[in-house]
Design brief:
By secondary structure, this protein is of the alpha+beta class. It is built from 1 helix and 3 strands. It is elongated and about 45 Å long.
Length: 70
């Protein structure tokens, strides 16, 4: 069972991760060059028209943010 302190730490980490991912998505979709935090290669946007798994990722796959296009 998880206690309140552990849950608070988990919640904060999740919130920070979401904020980082949101910033990456915003910058890539604005046409800015954003590098993968692990391999330092550029991140690319893959749309549903060009890929069956739309999202943002690097060539190595270290970063893989899957997106839903409506």
């Amino acid at each position: 069972m998880i206690d309140i302190k552990q849950f608070s730490v988990l919640e904060k980490a999740s919130k920070n991760s979401f904020a980082k991912q949101k910033k990456i998505v915003k910058n890539v979709m604005a046409g800015q060059t954003v590098l993968c935090p692990k391999c330092q290669q550029a991140l690319y946007l893959f749309t549903p028209e060009h890929d069956e798994n739309p999202g943002i990722r690097c060539k190595k796959g270290c970063t893989d943010l899957q997106l839903d296009f409506v």
